[in-house]
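Support request from a user on the community tier.

User writes: "When I paste my C-alpha coordinates into the form, the page sometimes reloads and wipes my input. The last time it worked, I copied everything first. Here is what I submitted, just in case something in the input itself triggers the reload:"
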Protein backbone atom coordinates (compact mmCIF):
# COMPACT_ATOMS: atom_id res chain seq x y z
CA UNK A 1 0.00 0.00 0.00
CA UNK A 2 1.21 3.52 -0.74
CA UNK A 3 1.93 4.57 2.85
CA UNK A 4 3.12 1.11 3.96
CA UNK A 5 0.54 0.97 6.72
CA UNK A 6 -2.60 -1.08 7.10
CA UNK A 7 -4.80 0.90 9.48
CA UNK A 8 -7.98 -0.11 11.28
CA UNK A 9 -9.98 2.09 8.90
CA UNK A 10 -8.46 0.41 5.86
CA UNK A 11 -9.06 -3.03 7.34
CA UNK A 12 -12.69 -2.27 8.07
CA UNK A 13 -13.09 -0.93 4.56
CA UNK A 14 -11.61 -4.15 3.22
CA UNK A 15 -13.76 -6.28 5.51
CA UNK A 16 -16.97 -4.37 4.82
CA UNK A 17 -19.38 -4.31 1.90
CA UNK A 18 -17.51 -3.74 -1.35
CA UNK A 19 -18.97 -2.86 -4.73
CA UNK A 20 -18.77 -5.39 -7.56
CA UNK A 21 -15.46 -5.23 -9.43
CA UNK A 22 -13.58 -3.15 -6.86
CA UNK A 23 -10.45 -4.73 -5.37
CA UNK A 24 -10.33 -6.03 -1.83
CA UNK A 25 -7.06 -5.76 0.04
CA UNK A 26 -6.29 -8.17 2.85
CA UNK A 27 -3.26 -7.98 5.12
CA UNK A 28 -2.10 -10.02 8.09
CA UNK A 29 0.19 -7.21 9.20
CA UNK A 30 1.52 -3.91 7.91
CA UNK A 31 4.25 -5.57 5.85
CA UNK A 32 2.18 -7.93 3.72
CA UNK A 33 -0.92 -7.01 1.75
CA UNK A 34 -2.58 -8.94 -1.07
CA UNK A 35 -4.94 -7.34 -3.55
CA UNK A 36 -7.75 -9.80 -4.16
CA UNK A 37 -9.16 -8.21 -7.31
CA UNK A 38 -12.63 -9.21 -8.40
CA UNK A 39 -13.70 -10.74 -5.07
CA UNK A 40 -16.85 -9.27 -3.62
CA UNK A 41 -18.20 -9.10 -0.11
CA UNK A 42 -21.81 -9.93 0.61
CA UNK A 43 -24.80 -7.63 0.56
CA UNK A 44 -25.13 -5.05 3.31
CA UNK A 45 -27.11 -6.25 6.32
CA UNK A 46 -29.76 -3.96 7.84
CA UNK A 47 -29.20 -2.71 11.37
CA UNK A 48 -31.31 -4.30 14.11
CA UNK A 49 -34.10 -2.08 15.41
CA UNK A 50 -34.67 -1.79 19.17
CA UNK A 51 -37.46 0.17 20.81
CA UNK A 52 -36.94 1.45 24.36
CA UNK A 53 -39.46 2.65 26.93
CA UNK A 54 -39.31 3.88 30.52
CA UNK A 55 -41.80 2.52 33.04
CA UNK A 56 -42.54 4.74 36.04
CA UNK A 57 -45.16 6.79 37.85
CA UNK A 58 -45.72 10.48 37.17
CA UNK A 59 -43.88 12.79 39.54
CA UNK A 60 -44.11 13.81 42.26
CA UNK A 61 -44.65 10.47 43.95
CA UNK A 62 -44.81 9.53 47.60
CA UNK A 63 -42.97 6.52 48.99
CA UNK A 64 -41.53 3.62 47.06
CA UNK A 65 -38.10 3.17 45.52
CA UNK A 66 -36.14 4.78 43.87
CA UNK A 67 -37.49 7.31 46.36
CA UNK A 68 -39.05 10.76 46.35
CA UNK A 69 -35.54 12.27 46.59
CA UNK A 70 -34.49 10.58 43.35
CA UNK A 71 -34.23 13.02 40.37
CA UNK A 72 -36.10 10.76 37.96
CA UNK A 73 -36.40 13.16 34.99
CA UNK A 74 -32.69 14.02 35.17
CA UNK A 75 -31.72 10.34 35.38
CA UNK A 76 -33.94 9.47 32.43
CA UNK A 77 -32.19 12.07 30.31
CA UNK A 78 -28.79 10.76 31.40
CA UNK A 79 -29.70 7.12 30.81
CA UNK A 80 -31.25 7.95 27.44
CA UNK A 81 -28.09 9.73 26.31
CA UNK A 82 -25.94 6.79 27.41
CA UNK A 83 -28.25 4.29 25.69
CA UNK A 84 -28.02 6.21 22.43
CA UNK A 85 -24.23 6.28 22.70
CA UNK A 86 -24.08 2.53 23.33
CA UNK A 87 -26.51 1.75 20.51
CA UNK A 88 -24.41 3.77 18.09
CA UNK A 89 -21.26 1.99 19.23
CA UNK A 90 -22.83 -1.46 18.89
CA UNK A 91 -24.55 -0.68 15.58
CA UNK A 92 -28.20 -0.70 16.64
CA UNK A 93 -31.02 1.59 15.53
CA UNK A 94 -32.55 2.61 18.87
CA UNK A 95 -35.78 4.58 19.29
CA UNK A 96 -36.63 5.72 22.82
CA UNK A 97 -40.31 6.42 23.44
CA UNK A 98 -40.83 10.13 24.26
CA UNK A 99 -43.42 9.33 26.97
CA UNK A 100 -42.99 6.92 29.83
CA UNK A 101 -45.56 4.20 30.58
CA UNK A 102 -47.38 4.41 33.91
CA UNK A 103 -50.70 2.55 33.60
CA UNK A 104 -52.10 -0.76 32.40
CA UNK A 105 -54.05 1.03 29.67
CA UNK A 106 -50.89 2.71 28.33
CA UNK A 107 -49.09 -0.61 28.49
CA UNK A 108 -51.80 -2.43 26.52
CA UNK A 109 -51.75 0.21 23.78
CA UNK A 110 -47.96 -0.05 23.56
CA UNK A 111 -48.10 -3.86 23.39
CA UNK A 112 -50.51 -3.63 20.44
CA UNK A 113 -48.05 -1.36 18.66
CA UNK A 114 -45.30 -3.89 19.28
CA UNK A 115 -47.39 -6.69 17.82
CA UNK A 116 -48.28 -4.64 14.75
CA UNK A 117 -44.72 -3.54 14.05
CA UNK A 118 -42.38 -5.74 16.09
CA UNK A 119 -38.81 -4.53 16.62
CA UNK A 120 -35.87 -6.90 16.93
CA UNK A 121 -36.01 -6.28 20.67
CA UNK A 122 -37.67 -4.19 23.35
CA UNK A 123 -35.64 -2.42 26.04
CA UNK A 124 -37.60 -1.68 29.22
CA UNK A 125 -36.09 0.66 31.82
CA UNK A 126 -37.94 0.31 35.12
CA UNK A 127 -38.01 3.41 37.30
CA UNK A 128 -40.42 2.43 40.05
CA UNK A 129 -40.48 -0.64 42.24
CA UNK A 130 -44.28 -1.08 42.23
CA UNK A 131 -44.74 -1.38 38.44
CA UNK A 132 -43.42 -4.88 37.76
CA UNK A 133 -46.90 -5.90 36.62
CA UNK A 134 -46.49 -3.54 33.65
CA UNK A 135 -43.09 -5.06 32.87
CA UNK A 136 -44.72 -8.50 32.90
CA UNK A 137 -47.31 -7.30 30.39
CA UNK A 138 -44.58 -5.89 28.12
CA UNK A 139 -42.69 -9.18 28.22
CA UNK A 140 -45.96 -10.85 27.23
CA UNK A 141 -45.85 -9.05 23.87
CA UNK A 142 -43.62 -11.88 22.60
CA UNK A 143 -40.84 -9.51 21.54
CA UNK A 144 -37.34 -10.28 22.85
CA UNK A 145 -37.07 -8.09 25.93
CA UNK A 146 -34.12 -6.53 27.76
CA UNK A 147 -35.08 -5.34 31.25
CA UNK A 148 -32.89 -2.76 32.95
CA UNK A 149 -33.67 -2.10 36.60
CA UNK A 150 -31.13 0.39 37.97
CA UNK A 151 -29.96 -0.40 41.47
CA UNK A 152 -32.52 1.07 43.83
CA UNK A 153 -35.59 0.13 41.76
CA UNK A 154 -35.81 -3.60 42.47
CA UNK A 155 -35.41 -6.14 45.25
CA UNK A 156 -34.20 -9.69 44.58
CA UNK A 157 -37.66 -11.10 43.76
CA UNK A 158 -37.96 -9.83 40.17
CA UNK A 159 -34.54 -11.26 39.39
CA UNK A 160 -35.91 -14.75 40.04
CA UNK A 161 -39.02 -13.97 38.02
CA UNK A 162 -37.21 -12.83 34.87
CA UNK A 163 -33.54 -13.83 35.06
CA UNK A 164 -33.90 -17.27 33.45
CA UNK A 165 -36.91 -16.68 31.24
CA UNK A 166 -36.38 -17.47 27.54
CA UNK A 167 -36.23 -14.43 25.21
CA UNK A 168 -35.66 -12.11 28.20
CA UNK A 169 -32.43 -10.67 29.61
CA UNK A 170 -32.63 -9.12 33.06
CA UNK A 171 -30.07 -6.51 34.16
CA UNK A 172 -29.95 -4.87 37.58
CA UNK A 173 -26.79 -2.85 38.00
CA UNK A 174 -25.23 0.53 38.66
CA UNK A 175 -24.19 0.80 35.01
CA UNK A 176 -25.34 -0.21 31.52
CA UNK A 177 -22.69 -2.81 30.76
CA UNK A 178 -25.26 -5.61 30.89
CA UNK A 179 -27.55 -3.70 28.52
CA UNK A 180 -24.71 -3.22 26.04
CA UNK A 181 -24.05 -6.95 26.26
CA UNK A 182 -27.69 -7.67 25.41
CA UNK A 183 -27.71 -5.24 22.49
CA UNK A 184 -24.65 -7.00 21.07
CA UNK A 185 -26.53 -10.28 21.39
CA UNK A 186 -29.53 -8.83 19.55
CA UNK A 187 -27.28 -7.60 16.76
CA UNK A 188 -25.58 -10.98 16.48
CA UNK A 189 -28.94 -12.72 16.31
CA UNK A 190 -30.13 -10.45 13.51
CA UNK A 191 -26.90 -11.11 11.58
CA UNK A 192 -27.35 -14.86 12.04
CA UNK A 193 -30.90 -14.62 10.69
CA UNK A 194 -29.84 -12.50 7.72
CA UNK A 195 -26.92 -14.78 6.78
CA UNK A 196 -26.51 -17.68 4.39
CA UNK A 197 -24.16 -20.64 4.77
CA UNK A 198 -22.94 -22.66 1.77
CA UNK A 199 -22.42 -26.31 2.72
CA UNK A 200 -20.30 -28.08 0.10
CA UNK A 201 -21.15 -31.77 0.09
CA UNK A 202 -23.07 -34.47 -1.75
CA UNK A 203 -24.51 -34.15 -5.23
CA UNK A 204 -27.70 -32.11 -4.80
CA UNK A 205 -28.47 -28.45 -4.24
CA UNK A 206 -30.95 -27.83 -1.43
CA UNK A 207 -32.07 -24.87 0.66
CA UNK A 208 -33.42 -24.76 4.19
CA UNK A 209 -33.40 -22.61 7.33
CA UNK A 210 -32.13 -23.50 10.78
CA UNK A 211 -34.53 -22.40 13.49
CA UNK A 212 -34.61 -20.70 15.93
CA UNK A 213 -31.48 -19.00 14.52
CA UNK A 214 -33.00 -18.43 11.07
CA UNK A 215 -29.74 -18.90 9.13
CA UNK A 216 -30.29 -20.08 5.56
CA UNK A 217 -28.39 -23.21 4.52
CA UNK A 218 -27.71 -23.88 0.83
CA UNK A 219 -26.12 -27.22 -0.03
CA UNK A 220 -23.68 -26.98 -2.93
CA UNK A 221 -22.70 -30.18 -4.80
CA UNK A 222 -19.09 -31.14 -4.11
CA UNK A 223 -18.31 -31.40 -7.82
CA UNK A 224 -19.04 -27.68 -8.17
CA UNK A 225 -16.21 -26.93 -5.76
CA UNK A 226 -13.82 -29.28 -7.61
CA UNK A 227 -14.70 -27.48 -10.85
CA UNK A 228 -14.02 -24.09 -9.25
CA UNK A 229 -10.70 -25.32 -7.87
CA UNK A 230 -9.60 -26.54 -11.30
CA UNK A 231 -10.50 -23.16 -12.81
CA UNK A 232 -8.08 -21.33 -10.49
CA UNK A 233 -4.73 -21.19 -12.23
CA UNK A 234 -1.60 -21.75 -10.13
CA UNK A 235 -0.06 -18.95 -12.19
CA UNK A 236 -2.71 -16.40 -11.14
CA UNK A 237 -0.79 -13.50 -9.62
CA UNK A 238 -3.25 -13.29 -6.71
CA UNK A 239 -2.66 -16.98 -5.93
CA UNK A 240 1.09 -16.45 -6.02
CA UNK A 241 0.85 -13.36 -3.82
CA UNK A 242 -1.29 -15.09 -1.20
CA UNK A 243 1.03 -18.09 -1.11
CA UNK A 244 4.06 -15.83 -0.79
CA UNK A 245 2.46 -13.90 2.08
CA UNK A 246 2.02 -17.06 4.13
CA UNK A 247 5.42 -18.40 3.13
CA UNK A 248 7.19 -15.25 4.28
CA UNK A 249 5.20 -14.76 7.47
CA UNK A 250 5.52 -18.33 8.74
CA UNK A 251 7.84 -18.79 11.67
CA UNK A 252 8.95 -22.01 10.02
CA UNK A 253 7.96 -24.28 7.11
CA UNK A 254 8.27 -27.97 7.88
CA UNK A 255 6.69 -30.31 5.32
CA UNK A 256 5.13 -28.18 2.53
CA UNK A 257 6.97 -27.38 -0.69
CA UNK A 258 6.43 -24.20 -2.70
CA UNK A 259 3.90 -25.86 -5.00
CA UNK A 260 1.94 -27.17 -2.00
CA UNK A 261 1.51 -23.62 -0.73
CA UNK A 262 0.41 -22.39 -4.16
CA UNK A 263 -2.19 -25.14 -4.46
CA UNK A 264 -3.39 -24.34 -0.93
CA UNK A 265 -3.87 -20.71 -1.99
CA UNK A 266 -5.97 -21.96 -4.95
CA UNK A 267 -8.42 -23.56 -2.48
CA UNK A 268 -9.04 -20.12 -0.99
CA UNK A 269 -10.08 -18.61 -4.32
CA UNK A 270 -12.20 -21.64 -5.18
CA UNK A 271 -14.13 -21.19 -1.92
CA UNK A 272 -14.51 -17.46 -2.46
CA UNK A 273 -15.91 -18.09 -5.94
CA UNK A 274 -18.46 -20.55 -4.52
CA UNK A 275 -19.47 -18.06 -1.83
CA UNK A 276 -19.83 -15.28 -4.37
CA UNK A 277 -21.97 -17.47 -6.63
CA UNK A 278 -24.36 -18.30 -3.79
CA UNK A 279 -24.12 -14.94 -2.01
CA UNK A 280 -23.00 -16.83 1.10
CA UNK A 281 -21.61 -15.34 4.29
CA UNK A 282 -20.08 -18.61 5.52
CA UNK A 283 -18.95 -21.93 4.10
CA UNK A 284 -18.62 -25.50 5.37
CA UNK A 285 -16.94 -28.12 3.20
CA UNK A 286 -16.97 -31.91 3.32
CA UNK A 287 -13.22 -31.77 2.79
CA UNK A 288 -11.93 -35.19 3.85
CA UNK A 289 -13.43 -37.19 0.93
CA UNK A 290 -12.01 -34.65 -1.52
CA UNK A 291 -8.55 -35.09 0.00
CA UNK A 292 -8.84 -38.88 0.27
CA UNK A 293 -9.90 -39.15 -3.39
CA UNK A 294 -7.22 -36.64 -4.45
CA UNK A 295 -9.81 -34.36 -6.08
CA UNK A 296 -8.49 -31.28 -4.27
CA UNK A 297 -5.82 -30.53 -1.68
CA UNK A 298 -6.70 -29.87 1.97
CA UNK A 299 -8.35 -26.42 2.33
CA UNK A 300 -6.75 -25.75 5.74
CA UNK A 301 -4.85 -22.62 4.70
CA UNK A 302 -7.94 -21.33 2.89
CA UNK A 303 -10.06 -21.72 6.03
CA UNK A 304 -7.49 -19.89 8.13
CA UNK A 305 -7.51 -17.02 5.66
CA UNK A 306 -11.30 -16.96 5.33
CA UNK A 307 -11.84 -16.82 9.08
CA UNK A 308 -9.29 -14.05 9.54
CA UNK A 309 -10.97 -12.17 6.70
CA UNK A 310 -14.36 -12.39 8.42
CA UNK A 311 -15.85 -15.42 6.65
CA UNK A 312 -16.69 -18.32 8.99
CA UNK A 313 -15.36 -21.50 7.36
CA UNK A 314 -16.14 -24.91 8.84
CA UNK A 315 -14.45 -28.25 8.30
CA UNK A 316 -16.14 -31.52 7.34
CA UNK A 317 -19.44 -29.83 6.40
CA UNK A 318 -20.30 -29.53 10.11
CA UNK A 319 -23.29 -27.20 10.08
CA UNK A 320 -23.60 -26.64 13.81
CA UNK A 321 -19.88 -26.04 14.34
CA UNK A 322 -19.94 -23.53 11.48
CA UNK A 323 -22.97 -21.83 13.02
CA UNK A 324 -20.84 -21.53 16.15
CA UNK A 325 -18.04 -19.95 14.12
CA UNK A 326 -20.60 -17.48 12.78
CA UNK A 327 -21.65 -16.69 16.33
CA UNK A 328 -18.11 -16.02 17.54
CA UNK A 329 -17.64 -13.61 14.65
CA UNK A 330 -20.96 -11.78 15.01
CA UNK A 331 -21.12 -11.72 18.80
CA UNK A 332 -17.51 -11.79 19.99
CA UNK A 333 -15.90 -9.94 17.05
CA UNK A 334 -13.23 -12.59 16.57
CA UNK A 335 -12.77 -15.81 14.63
CA UNK A 336 -12.97 -19.18 16.35
CA UNK A 337 -10.87 -22.34 16.23
CA UNK A 338 -13.01 -25.39 15.43
CA UNK A 339 -11.43 -28.65 16.54
CA UNK A 340 -11.67 -32.19 17.79
CA UNK A 341 -11.96 -32.86 21.55
CA UNK A 342 -8.97 -34.74 22.98
CA UNK A 343 -8.74 -35.56 26.71
CA UNK A 344 -5.64 -35.59 28.89
CA UNK A 345 -6.85 -37.69 31.81
CA UNK A 346 -3.82 -37.02 34.02
CA UNK A 347 -3.73 -33.22 33.85
CA UNK A 348 -7.51 -33.11 33.28
CA UNK A 349 -7.24 -30.69 30.38
CA UNK A 350 -9.21 -30.58 27.13
CA UNK A 351 -7.15 -30.42 23.95
CA UNK A 352 -8.71 -28.83 20.86
CA UNK A 353 -6.96 -30.17 17.77
CA UNK A 354 -7.40 -29.39 14.06
CA UNK A 355 -5.30 -28.55 11.01
CA UNK A 356 -6.75 -25.09 10.44
CA UNK A 357 -6.90 -22.23 12.92
CA UNK A 358 -7.29 -18.47 12.54
CA UNK A 359 -4.37 -16.17 13.23
CA UNK A 360 -6.42 -13.17 14.36
CA UNK A 361 -7.25 -14.83 17.66
CA UNK A 362 -7.66 -11.55 19.56
CA UNK A 363 -9.98 -9.98 16.97
CA UNK A 364 -9.99 -8.96 13.34
CA UNK A 365 -7.70 -5.99 13.89
CA UNK A 366 -5.38 -7.83 16.31
CA UNK A 367 -1.81 -8.81 15.64
CA UNK A 368 -1.68 -12.28 14.04
CA UNK A 369 -0.48 -15.16 16.18
CA UNK A 370 2.76 -16.91 15.24
CA UNK A 371 2.34 -19.99 13.07
CA UNK A 372 4.23 -22.82 11.38
CA UNK A 373 3.31 -24.17 7.95
CA UNK A 374 2.79 -27.92 8.18
CA UNK A 375 1.18 -30.66 6.13
CA UNK A 376 -2.37 -31.87 6.72
CA UNK A 377 -1.68 -34.42 9.46
CA UNK A 378 -4.10 -37.18 8.43
CA UNK A 379 -2.98 -37.30 4.79
CA UNK A 380 0.50 -35.76 5.20
CA UNK A 381 -0.25 -33.69 2.09
CA UNK A 382 -0.91 -30.04 1.31
CA UNK A 383 -0.62 -27.21 3.82
CA UNK A 384 -2.00 -26.98 7.33
CA UNK A 385 -1.57 -24.40 10.07
CA UNK A 386 0.12 -24.94 13.40
CA UNK A 387 -0.94 -21.80 15.23
CA UNK A 388 0.73 -21.11 18.57
CA UNK A 389 -1.63 -19.84 21.27
CA UNK A 390 -0.29 -17.71 24.12
CA UNK A 391 -0.07 -19.82 27.27
CA UNK A 392 -1.77 -18.32 30.33
CA UNK A 393 -4.56 -16.59 28.39
CA UNK A 394 -8.24 -17.14 29.19
CA UNK A 395 -10.18 -18.95 26.47
CA UNK A 396 -13.75 -20.12 25.91
CA UNK A 397 -15.07 -23.33 24.37
CA UNK A 398 -18.52 -23.17 22.85
CA UNK A 399 -20.70 -25.10 20.44
CA UNK A 400 -24.29 -25.39 19.30
CA UNK A 401 -25.47 -28.88 20.29
CA UNK A 402 -28.19 -28.71 17.71
CA UNK A 403 -29.56 -25.20 17.13
CA UNK A 404 -31.58 -25.29 20.38
CA UNK A 405 -28.68 -25.70 22.83
CA UNK A 406 -25.49 -23.67 23.24
CA UNK A 407 -22.62 -24.95 25.36
CA UNK A 408 -20.09 -22.51 26.80
CA UNK A 409 -17.27 -22.85 29.30
CA UNK A 410 -14.02 -21.05 30.00
CA UNK A 411 -10.53 -21.93 31.15
CA UNK A 412 -6.83 -21.19 30.75
CA UNK A 413 -4.55 -22.11 27.86
CA UNK A 414 -1.82 -24.32 29.34
CA UNK A 415 0.10 -25.75 26.37
CA UNK A 416 0.61 -26.00 22.61
CA UNK A 417 1.31 -29.63 21.70
CA UNK A 418 3.57 -30.63 18.81
CA UNK A 419 2.89 -33.38 16.26
CA UNK A 420 5.10 -35.38 16.40
CA UNK A 421 5.93 -36.53 19.03
CA UNK A 422 2.15 -36.62 19.54
CA UNK A 423 -0.39 -37.63 16.93
CA UNK A 424 -3.45 -35.79 15.73
CA UNK A 425 -3.95 -32.43 14.09
CA UNK A 426 -1.35 -29.71 13.70
CA UNK A 427 -2.82 -27.02 15.96
CA UNK A 428 -3.38 -28.69 19.33
CA UNK A 429 -4.20 -26.39 22.23
CA UNK A 430 -4.66 -27.65 25.79
CA UNK A 431 -7.09 -25.76 28.05
CA UNK A 432 -7.72 -26.31 31.76
CA UNK A 433 -11.47 -25.76 32.03
CA UNK A 434 -13.06 -24.11 35.07
CA UNK A 435 -16.10 -26.36 34.84
CA UNK A 436 -14.47 -29.74 34.27
CA UNK A 437 -12.18 -30.72 37.16
CA UNK A 438 -12.50 -34.37 36.05
CA UNK A 439 -12.12 -34.48 32.26
CA UNK A 440 -13.38 -38.08 32.27
CA UNK A 441 -16.91 -36.82 32.90
CA UNK A 442 -17.07 -34.98 29.58
CA UNK A 443 -18.99 -36.72 26.84
CA UNK A 444 -19.23 -36.81 23.07
CA UNK A 445 -19.49 -33.20 21.87
CA UNK A 446 -17.41 -32.86 18.72
CA UNK A 447 -15.94 -29.94 16.81
CA UNK A 448 -16.12 -27.53 19.71
CA UNK A 449 -15.02 -23.97 18.96
CA UNK A 450 -12.21 -22.45 21.01
CA UNK A 451 -12.03 -18.66 21.11
CA UNK A 452 -9.59 -16.40 22.92
CA UNK A 453 -11.01 -14.62 25.98
CA UNK A 454 -13.68 -15.38 28.57
CA UNK A 455 -17.07 -14.89 26.89
CA UNK A 456 -19.34 -17.26 28.81
CA UNK A 457 -21.74 -14.60 30.09
CA UNK A 458 -22.14 -12.98 26.67
CA UNK A 459 -22.80 -16.36 25.05
CA UNK A 460 -25.37 -17.15 27.74
CA UNK A 461 -27.02 -13.79 27.07
CA UNK A 462 -27.26 -14.56 23.35
CA UNK A 463 -28.72 -17.99 23.99
CA UNK A 464 -31.36 -16.82 26.43
CA UNK A 465 -32.51 -13.90 24.30
CA UNK A 466 -32.91 -16.11 21.24
CA UNK A 467 -34.77 -18.99 22.83
CA UNK A 468 -31.72 -21.26 22.90
CA UNK A 469 -30.90 -23.21 26.07
CA UNK A 470 -27.54 -22.13 27.54
CA UNK A 471 -25.49 -25.03 28.92
CA UNK A 472 -22.36 -25.24 31.02
CA UNK A 473 -19.79 -27.83 29.96
CA UNK A 474 -20.98 -30.25 32.64
CA UNK A 475 -24.64 -29.67 31.73
CA UNK A 476 -23.77 -30.33 28.09
CA UNK A 477 -22.11 -33.60 29.10
CA UNK A 478 -25.27 -34.64 30.91
CA UNK A 479 -27.44 -33.74 27.90
CA UNK A 480 -25.23 -35.82 25.63
CA UNK A 481 -25.28 -38.72 28.12
CA UNK A 482 -29.09 -38.64 27.95
CA UNK A 483 -28.96 -38.60 24.14
CA UNK A 484 -26.69 -41.61 24.12
CA UNK A 485 -28.97 -43.43 26.54
CA UNK A 486 -32.01 -42.76 24.34
CA UNK A 487 -30.18 -43.67 21.13
CA UNK A 488 -30.82 -40.18 19.69
CA UNK A 489 -27.29 -39.47 18.47
CA UNK A 490 -26.70 -36.58 16.10
CA UNK A 491 -23.87 -34.54 14.61
CA UNK A 492 -23.07 -33.04 18.00
CA UNK A 493 -22.52 -36.45 19.62
CA UNK A 494 -19.71 -38.66 18.42
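"...and here is what came back when it finally went through:"
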Amino acid sequence: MADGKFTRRKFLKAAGVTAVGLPIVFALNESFAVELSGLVRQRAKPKPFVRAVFVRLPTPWWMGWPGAAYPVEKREREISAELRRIANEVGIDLVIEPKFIATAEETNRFVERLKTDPPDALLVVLHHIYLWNLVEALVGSGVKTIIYAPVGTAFIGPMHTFANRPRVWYVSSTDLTGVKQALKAIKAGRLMRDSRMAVIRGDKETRTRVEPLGTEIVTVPAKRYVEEFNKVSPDDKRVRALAEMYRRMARKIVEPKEQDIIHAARTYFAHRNIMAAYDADAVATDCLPLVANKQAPPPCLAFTHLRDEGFPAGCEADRDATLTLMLTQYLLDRPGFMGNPVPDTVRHVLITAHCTCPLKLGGFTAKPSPFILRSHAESDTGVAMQVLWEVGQRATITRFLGPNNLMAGAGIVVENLNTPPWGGCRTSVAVKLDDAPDIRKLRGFHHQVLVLGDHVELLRCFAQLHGVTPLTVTAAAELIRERYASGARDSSCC
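Agent notes: The reload is a front-end session timeout and is unrelated to the input. The longest strand covers residues 405-417. The chain has two domains: 49-191, 194-486. Escalated to web team.
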